[in-house]
Amino acid sequence: MSIFIDNDTKLVVQGITGRDGSFHTLQTMEYGTNVVAGVTPGKGGQTFEGPNGQTVPIFNAMDEAVAETGANTSVIFVPPAFAAGAVLEAADSGVALVVAITEGVPVLDMARAHVFARDKGVRVLGPNCPGLISPGKAKVGILPGQIVTEGPIGLVSRSGTLTYEAVFQLTGAGLGQTTCVGIGGDPLIGTNFIDCLEAFEADPDTKGVVMLGEIGGTDEQEAAAYVSDHMSKPVVGFIAGQTAPPGRRMGHAGAIISGSAGTAEEKMKAFEENGIAVAKRPADLVGLIQDALN
Amino acid sequence: MSIFIDNDTKLVVQGITGRDGSFHTLQTMEYGTNVVAGVTPGKGGQTFEGPNGQTVPIFNAMDEAVAETGANTSVIFVPPAFAAGAVLEAADSGVALVVAITEGVPVLDMARAHVFARDKGVRVLGPNCPGLISPGKAKVGILPGQIVTEGPIGLVSRSGTLTYEAVFQLTGAGLGQTTCVGIGGDPLIGTNFIDCLEAFEADPDTKGVVMLGEIGGTDEQEAAAYVSDHMSKPVVGFIAGQTAPPGRRMGHAGAIISGSAGTAEEKMKAFEENGIAVAKRPADLVGLIQDALN
Amino acid sequence: MDIHEYQAKERFRAAGIDVPPGEIATTPEEAETIAAGYGGTVVVKAQVHSGGRGKAGGVRLAKDAAEAKEHATAILGMDIKGLTVEKVLVTPAEDIDTEAYVGVLMDRKKQAATFMVSAEGGVDIEHVAHETPELIRKLTVDPRYGILPHQAFWLANFLYDDPKLIKQASKIIAQLYDAFVNSGASMAEINPLITTSAGEVKAIDAKMSIDDSELFRRPDVEAMRDTSSEPASEVKAREAGLSYVKLDGDVGCCVNGAGLAMATMDLVKYYGGEPANFLDIGGSSNPDKVVAALEIITSDPNVKAILFNIFGGITRCDDVARGIVEATNRIDIGPPIVIRLTGTNEELALEILSDAGFSAYTSMDAVVEKAVELAAGGA
Amino acid sequence: MDIHEYQAKERFRAAGIDVPPGEIATTPEEAETIAAGYGGTVVVKAQVHSGGRGKAGGVRLAKDAAEAKEHATAILGMDIKGLTVEKVLVTPAEDIDTEAYVGVLMDRKKQAATFMVSAEGGVDIEHVAHETPELIRKLTVDPRYGILPHQAFWLANFLYDDPKLIKQASKIIAQLYDAFVNSGASMAEINPLITTSAGEVKAIDAKMSIDDSELFRRPDVEAMRDTSSEPASEVKAREAGLSYVKLDGDVGCCVNGAGLAMATMDLVKYYGGEPANFLDIGGSSNPDKVVAALEIITSDPNVKAILFNIFGGITRCDDVARGIVEATNRIDIGPPIVIRLTGTNEELALEILSDAGFSAYTSMDAVVEKAVELAAGGA
Fold first, then answer.
1. Which of B171, C266, D199, D306 is most open to solvent, judged by the fewest CB atoms within 10 Å of its CB?
2. The total number of structural domains that make up chain A
């Protein structure tokens, strides 16, 4: 089992003809994900050439793509100016999950898009996220397929390459994953730690969870309380940005300590107080989760 | 029994200190309605003097008024520029019914206010309506209390004085009313004919319904279909504006024939085709409803 | 309130829509000068608040400035459905490839603005909607979000196949919604929206109605009111705060409340007469309003009898009666007046009216019958 | 992006908020002239992107123009938390009766803009929120509706008892929301919002942060960027499309990905070193970016060792390795460089790097430990 995506995922790629969109669609198809459609306004009727001779039909709009192919998941690779519009379109089209990879989407646009999606009952992952991968089943987004492997660990993270690092170490230690989810580095994200923790708790194949947080906001603190109150499975964590200065944005739009709020210190404290073992460095995660599983 | 208002109605008057608000609050209290609060921003803490020595506390805002008095219904007498804001405030305050008397509210403002109220599950009557009265129980709005009397007829109308005319004739013929509702003459109204018909159908004391329509829109046509499909009780009707020219607004913002749509002729035809006896003139309503009840 | 084509075009241009240039002429000479300035073929278009100006000969193609002057001479002063043409719009003729329809109006049932588009433009859209509804695509806009990019695309995609045209039309549709909202409109329409052989999408006609309730907060739109295009009596009524519509009959009607006023007109017809007007005098007993109403009604030379139909309601009838008496004392009225007054204190009111020499009634049918009889020359 | 007080005030004024006048001086003489123009007591305020300028002596009252010049002399060039004051705002002193706080910021949890108001203004609001949360009222704005009139009233009503003050403050709160949205802000704040003894409500201070992702579509806001208030290295990094924050340590860090970059800094600290910077080089193998990154890192004289930590991910590691080698060939680097590269084709990559004379690693811990050792003077 896995969370959010699996063998039944039928993916439509919004912005399939763009540089990033086409590159990652190839990677996604290589991994074996069922990419059923692409959308680029004005290119409807054309065809995307997959890696092994497969072809993917391109549509002008999401409603057509969903009606023709039964797509249930979309991934967004369109530029920032149009990304919130693409989320709105996807949420209006009938897919159940929208994964927004685009970085640099205006936050005010996303505030509207998130409430729209909530009203429609559609899950949004991101924006500014690497997407997610359920090893051996499906990959949606830009996480590299070659570093993951099937196994009992659920992984959720606000970061991209830090996720690679952690997955790489887990896989190296023989700890495969049910699903690895990058929830994104933006201030307003559609799916947060708690949503993922809830799903991992409900997923029978997930035996333990690795949670990678970073400075900014209080999502980790709330997640910690959730773990304590609602999780039976062990959770271990890491917080990036212990050395980050206050008031400065550390790459991610959401990675900023505001005043005295959102520090790594308070997040690590919240983890520890709620029974989440905290790794001092990424390399320690493996040992902690192994201990927790035993 | 009655619809929408009864002996349990606890009314708050928005704009109680204005010219119309204060005048009609006195009339409303004279009729015996339980007016529990008034709202005028900046006049909180003052008191409204009722007709027989009663006093009504004035609040700055609806949330305070509802919290302090348990009001469940509001009536709005504020000027057009602020009326939609008053509807939003009322819908946000916890009352179940908002009656907007104000005429001349910008329609775009009301489009927002109506969707807000719908989201909150709050019924709006009007705007640009005379309100409603349940004889012997409560009166909310500007319908004159002296012309109504208790009895078996439900009356619903888009007009004010035409309602008086019809009620006057019914009462004169010994046909009292359960509730008389003026739904308002604006293009976008919160409660339409069908809402009232549904409520009258469900009200055991209502034995027959008089429906007064006018030119503009297709509310009457849809109501006629509803009557045919869902009503067991007899309904008779009248349509004002048989001599109105197309394209001209006849007083009410909503009373306008657009192109060839919204004529009295098509509405009367819809009534007749759906078993609603149509009065050629107001004076004929009494005979028609008497026949229908027998 | 309706505004003229050239005014609607100004609003559309302000929203970014590609509207070809155009200037207003009130004399044939001005039209000639404007046409000469553009060079080439121009269109001379009557500016009048009425449909069907094309059929009436109010829109003409002129191959040069001299012909533009000629056409302007013919069109200026023309009567179109009772309205005199005071202005023409002179605009360069466009190279038209296709004609589509794009409109947005406030939809009562959906309680929101609703778009209607069709590739069948340049014709009566109501006719298209009735005969071939499959040629029309509709979309209701959630007022909380405005029109979303994919919705505008969905509409534009119904009009064109060429992605370049779809892109331009999507933009125009979103801009039309902006113009609609920012003007406080109840209707805004481009018919036709054309494509040129160069692949451009342009609005060559424009129509917009404003929600009267918006005018108090939009002085720029209120300034577009053209009182010269309205009957003087209606202008006067608006200034007096009365709701008045002139009709062609001979029974002047003065009623409190719009619904009752319509029902009264209908009853005039029922009894064989023809109403001269719709007039809602409101709920007040103020003699000034009655004076204004009577002045407006009697300014119509067709009026042979005047009928008051007042339901006292909450206002006391005796107050209203006194207002009517005072008003009729102030001015001299030619046609006979009959009055129906009912509601609180009606007996007292009828006494006041009879004492002042009026025929006073409590029944609506009776008073209307009498008024019709008087207008027909009876006593 | 932070903007200066005087710039935020421009945005507030444009939204209709009552902001007292004020002008910018870059020399003491200008400050004197401005103060003389206003007459009476003025305030001279350092314009710098940093809190605590009051405590640092960057805000001073001057009773006349001569004193304003004196204060400007003291403040201009002053160092406040590492930033040099280049401009002062000179503004007439206000007659302050009460001081309140009004702010709006994007709330992550509510996924919407959230207001925070307090009658305790002119002080550190975070302190108020922590010590006396009951003195703060909060309201989340539904982005579909914007702030509603009764919501603005509800907030204003928490600040004042006098209906006239409440009315003014309600309006200012609604206008602040407009300024927030129309500037693409992530935070906008008036602290203090004052009342005068004449009963006026005014914004005498202003603070605003802009969402960087909005800047591409708001050239008027982007034009407010003051590069003189940022370290030159950060300006250069932004122009090169790199995410860079200068810190005080001696281990230069060059990492792909923000999360991994922070984790790398943290690991430097873990092994006893101090990171010299945060730098996210992104996912590309483009040598130009690597060159820019190295130039920026080495422009910091504190840097004693440079550490690359690259997780190849989807990009092939050998490509990245070639990019690094090419970049380091193009420019001359003083401090030693150590490189960690892992992911697809890492063996090939390590070979390329070793051949070029670099210390190459696959373990993050190993490379960080080595870099710290090098910076501390080890070999």
1. D199
2. 2
